[in-house]
Task: structure prediction
Amino acid sequence: MHRLDPFVRGLPKTDLHMHLEGSIEPEMLLTLAARNNVRLPWDTPEQVRAAYRFDNLQSFLDLYFAGCQVLVTGQDFYDITRAYLRQAVADGVVHAEMFLGPQSFTGRGVPLDALMEGILSAIDDAARADGITAGLLVSAHRHRSEAEAVALLDSVMPWAERILGIGMGGPEVGNPPSKFVHFFRTCRARGLRITIHAGEEGPAAYVREAVELLGVDRIDHGNACLDDPALVRLLAERRIPLTVCPLSNLRLQVVPAMTAHPLRRLMEAGLFVTVNSDDPPYFGGYVTENLLACHDALGLTVAEMAQLARAGFAASFLPPEAVARGVAAVDAYVARYRADDGA
Ligand code: ADE
Ligand code: ZN
Result:
């Protein structure tokens, strides 16, 4: 085990950027496939894991969307949400903000209310059982049309009070934020928070569009902003959080090696950076593994990991009192660790 594993696992953390569809562990993928009579090209968890080798974002998305076929009933959505939240608790995550893209399911006849109620009940049960807080970010697909995104938004309005915000993922290059100006304006007009994947495979210009044209509350990934120093200044001035996902970037070959990951450069530029899991089974770990990988490759210190944990609470969509409690929990934990460590 890594020397710092107990410290990092015990550090109170958030996971602000993860996708429920991308959280299905291979064992559960096969169980759900059998339950719903869905044929998959793999018979064992080992075979599923062996398929998790990606050249780029699209090669991952092909598998991710194929995996979505195993989700059919409200119980399936309940089960994957509850399973992820159990893993998150074991990982020391005390608050999670989880994306799900209903368009993958409603288009093939899965009822939206079954999907929504399954996820929301699992959130409630996890809070009761384990004390973890969690919320749903409804995600639209950027490869689909803006009209389809607006139709999705209209369809989830009955649950508006229980939705933390609206996000957007999918193939980035060729689907810039500017394609969705009206959609995000409509989200805003309805009082919803907004976030978008930008600057993962796409250029700094997409991050700029997300800030200037959409007025987003957060950027998911955002790595490419470093190519535009004026944009870095803008992000820092406006304190727009970036939900960075280091192991995802490694596995999707956004970076050639962990040592080349921009996390430290983003932090040194004064940006509001958080570390998150994205699609944990596909990319080799939850938030703890992401932080440990950054410690190993980038020399992230205990103080820097604590700073990232505090940033996770500050960047969350939690109410201010809960943010303050999260930050105080990090401070108390680090003070105890230093006292025990004689540091
Ligand atoms: N959906 C799930 N993971 C994603 C990622 N890393 N980028 C874009 N869309 C996604
Ligand atoms: Zn993502």
Observations:
- The two ends are 22 Å apart (CA to CA).
- The pocket of adenine (ligand 1) is lined by residues 19, 22, 57, 64, 169-170, 197, 200, 248, 278-279 (CB under 6 Å).
